[in-house]
Amino acid sequence: MEHTPEHTRILVSGGGIAGLALAYWLRRYGFRPTVVERAAALRGGGQAVDLRGAARDVAERMGLMPDIRSAHTGTRGMAYVDRRGRRLAYMDTESFGDSGGAIADIEILRSDLVRILLAAAQDGVEYLFDDSITALTETPDGVEVGFERSAPRVFDLVVGADGTRSNVRRLAFGPDDGYVTDGGHYLGIFATTTPYDLDGWQVMYAMPGRLAGLYPTGSEGDARAMLFFRSPPLDVDRRDLDAQRRVLADAFAGQGWEVPRLIEAMWQAPDLYVDRAAKVTMDRWSSGRVVLLGDASFAGSVGMGTSMALVGAYVLAGELAVARDHRAAFTAYERALRDYVTACQKPLPGGERGFLPPTRLEIWLRIRCSA
Fold first, then answer.
1. pLDDT in tens, 157-171
2. Which of 88, 140, 188, 320 has the lowest CB atom count within 10 Å?
3. What is the C-alpha separation between 83 and 86, in angstroms, rounded?
4. Domain 5-66+110-179+279-344 in CATH 3.50.50.60
């Protein structure tokens, strides 16, 4: 069935980077997008994210680079320290060029990028906050969508941009087991303060199977705390923040450097974000009138998640704008992005063991390689 943008109603599930970027491009091409977001408001906090390679071109075409550069955290590089805070090794942004390495030369807090994208995707975009999709029923002429709070509606297309544990993917493609590979570790991130002048450096302290860090935000005295630890999957409700706090506290009990202070601050942090690392791989990203975008379809890169989300949103909207129907658009979208995504999802050298070495000897070797 042929479509024209002005008569095509598209529901985007997820108000994160991928969903907001897609809403911007869809509206720019004349579509009628609706964004449904489970949270009552767009989530603040979160880690810093990188803009690399083609994602910068996309941001330029959106006219957002001046705002993004003004919100740049000013991060200069990453340094490993010992338990007394003495620097052992470092990697600066200049060592890897303007887009590569552990730290890119354009880094921005996730919350700032979401704010910028939301401001750009206001006119002509409908938002449904504090709601989520409960049912998808495809018909010859559209998708009947059931919601937790809103009345059922019919859309021409549905896009799942709702993260690694995508609700849309589960409804349209089936259980996560067939698509999600466990990453072997947990991460916790929250806003905190630090008495130290980080001077633009992300500081990391490695312990066997664990890693703690402070990330400079560009505001004096403020930082993002980062906690990573290896563990088999634990029976913890992802919605139970107190249980997640206990897990982090147990994992880092008795450690040195700034860890005790960070754990103390974590108990009071209102923006604590805890997740299980995972990788999403799929043979196809669409099913009928439903298509996936961002982490819902290709989570698990090393520092490329934001870039893939921005590039993917640009490509998907562009293909929908020029294709004769959604089937042709979805096919072209996958064809254009598949090699890019495959390259971005390549694991770190050494994999999980290289990222979180389980022994002090391996930590020493890792740091020596970084020096």
1. 999 999 999 999 999
2. 140
3. 8
4. yes
